[in-house]
Design goal:
It contains 28 helices and 11 strands. The strands form 5 sheets. A 3-stranded mixed beta sheet has the order 2-1-7. A two-stranded antiparallel ribbon has the order 3-4. By secondary structure, it is mainly alpha-helical. It folds into 4 domains: 168 residues, no CATH class; 133 residues, no CATH class; 84 residues; 177 residues, no CATH class.
């Protein structure tokens, strides 16, 4: 839109490799499209420029959709635009000007979802991946933009797309290796992901192997299939797309030896040290790589990506209910540096009970070490990366891994980073003193603790879930004794305690006064007296309140009154729950609650 009429925009170099028509026919590359050769077309592989070309195709198609079949666009019929840029047809055949390899899921998606061709075969093979999600997002982006434009403006954009963009069209010499060219060109500008570069590298290395040609061809097919599977699972959940390089890094951590010296160590190792030309051709190199090493690696990464998807989408996994429950808990806490170990356990773990025990110990570690003791997020990662690697290759058992984690938390080995409740006490005390918000300001842990307390009450009641984790917002945690004390009854009950000495703040933000709600209450109701909060009629005459809310609300509704004594008692109960739930000892509970002045 910013490009002035009659002006040109330089859009970069399009680099291609010419495909000889005889070669294409012999290898049966495009059997359905061979008739295009008779019409004078040539065929090319796009080495660099695919995303630019595809973006233009998506925008052009979006613009064409805004015009009816009998309307002209810049003095050309809609059919003429389609023939020039998208596909050509005969009575029997249809061939696409631009597309992907036939076995690439993006090819069917491009034809059916972008070009809106009702191709039975393509529709049947339609598969959504990380890359088809990118196509979908681009289409939706352009549709939203074009919706706001007049047909004159759309015609102007189409004119600029077809006439105003200028490319250098570069056909590489047949003596150049297409894979090396691809990698060299994509090391400039906006880089491809390391996962994309690694695929290209592995295919290139397969051409250098001394093995039989049939074996090498099969290896290349295996690499393509592995990456197709990887992109399928990384993009399987459209609401939670998984980062490709994050997966590659965690698989590397598990498969190879971890080093924390360099944040980008995984990509440097894979592309600069291990999967290199030297590792194939130089017999004296320390990292000798051959057919077997490449095959084993791609089998591993293809197998692990499915598990990686299930870790972050437990509901869709084939695992038992207990494993799903603990994976859900770990996702609420954020898995962090335990991801390689969890991936290994799910790939190698044949004993479901042992896998559950491992997940329980990891959950205990994350909550106590990171949320309660507030250690740095990389605490223990070198150890547990090593455990993941050894477990994957059979040098350590899952039982040993479980013990390693538990001993770490309980300070029963050489490590000094376990749980120290005094640090938690100091942390909460600082929250009371500096921000005057105590447990309410414990953002990393209060939500998880109250939710686990809620689940424990639900289990005891043998009822259904009343509070979904995803639905918990800031106003889902209520102060029973309210921050805004509009009702005079609160002043009578808490009048003996002063703001000056911070006693009221300590009561207000103490653990026992915080309640997980099933439905956030109206702000004006939060200041009402305790009896009203427990049960009252709304404007529609319906009885509402704590009495029929979350299990935590129902428990509080059993109290006849709400005074400092109840806040103290409920806080002690929740700390006792913490002791039982995470197998720790909490001394001086009154001090941790910030209510030692009440004793």
């Amino acid at each position: 839109m910013n490009l002035k009429e009659e002006k040109y925009h330089y859009t970069g170099v399009i680099t291609v490799e010419n495909i000889d028509s005889n070669q294409a026919k012999e290898q049966k590359l495009w059997e359905d499209d061979e008739w295009l050769y008779e019409k004078g077309f040539k065929s090319f592989y796009v080495i660099d420029g695919q995303q630019r070309l595809l973006t233009i195709m998506i925008l052009l198609k979006t613009i064409l959709n805004k015009f009816s079949e009998d309307e002209e666009i810049n003095y050309s019929s809609k059919d003429e635009w389609v023939k020039k840029y998208f596909y050509q047809s005969t009575k029997k055949y249809e061939a696409f000007i631009f597309g992907y390899e036939k076995d690439n899921p993006s090819d069917a998606y491009y034809k059916v979802k972008i070009l809106e061709k009702k191709d039975i075969k393509s529709s049947r093979e339609l598969e959504e991946t990380l890359y088809t999600a990118n196509l979908k997002n681009a289409k939706e982006f352009f549709e939203a933009k074009c919706k706001k434009l007049s047909k004159e403006e759309l015609e102007s954009i189409a004119r600029k797309l077809s006439n105003g963009l200028r490319f250098n069209f570069y056909e590489i010499d047949n003596q150049l290796d297409v894979f090396v060219t691809f990698e060299t060109m994509n090391n400039r500008g906006k880089q491809l992901s390391k996962l994309e570069l690694l695929k290209n590298r592995l295919i290139y290395l397969s051409t250098l192997l001394p093995d039989e040609e049939d074996d090498k061809r099969q290896l290349r097919r295996d690499i393509n299939e592995a990456w197709k599977n990887i992109y399928k699972y990384l993009g399987k959940n459209k609401e939670n797309l998984l980062d490709d390089d994050k997966f590659l890094e965690n698989h590397w951590t598990m498969y190879f030896t971890y080093s924390r010296q360099d944040a980008k160590a995984f990509s440097k190792f894979l592309l600069n040290e291990y999967f290199t030309v030297d590792s194939i051709l130089n017999k004296s190199t320390t990292n000798k790589v051959g057919f077997d090493q490449i095959k084993e690696y791609i089998q591993s990464i293809s197998e692990c990506v499915e598990v990686w998807f299930y870790i972050f989408n437990p509901v869709e996994s084939p695992y038992g209910e207990e494993i799903k429950i603990w994976l859900e808990k770990l996702n609420r806490l954020r898995i962090g540096s335990f991801a390689p170990l969890i991936m290994t356990a799910l790939v190698r773990g044949n004993d479901e009970k042992k896998v559950v025990q491992l997940l329980q110990e990891i959950e205990r570690f994350i909550f106590l070490v990171f949320k309660v003791t507030n250690r740095k997020s990389n605490t223990g990662n070198s150890l547990f990366y090593r455990v993941a690697h050894e477990l994957y290759f059979g040098d350590r058992t899952i039982t040993e891994a479980i013990k390693e984690i538990r001993d770490y938390v309980d300070c029963k080995n050489d490590y000094t980073y376990g749980v120290d409740i005094s640090e938690f006490k100091n942390f909460i005390e600082n929250k009371f003193k500096r921000q005057e918000e105590g447990f309410y300001g414990w953002e990393s842990g209060i939500k998880y603790l109250l939710y686990e307390y809620e689940l424990n009450l639900q289990k005891s009641s043998k009822g259904n879930i009343k509070v979904e984790w995803e639905g918990i917002k800031t106003d889902s945690i209520e102060h029973i004794y309210p921050q805004s004390q509009g009702d005079s009854s609160w002043g009578k009950i808490f009048g003996r305690y002063s703001y000056k000495n911070k006693e009221k703040y300590r009561l207000l933000h103490s653990l026992g006064n915080l309640l997980l709600l099933s439905i956030p209450k109206n702000a004006e109701l939060q200041a009402r007296d305790f009896e009203y909060k427990k049960k009252h009629q709304d404007k529609h005459g319906k009885w509402v309140g704590y009495f029929n809310g979350s299990y935590s609300e129902i428990e509080v509704a059993q109290y006849s009154s709400w005074t400092p004594k109840e806040i103290y008692a409920r806080g002690i109960n929740i700390l006792k729950f913490m002791e039982n739930r995470w197998s720790i000892t909490i001394d001086n509970k009154a001090e941790i609650l910030g209510l030692d002045f009440m004793q």
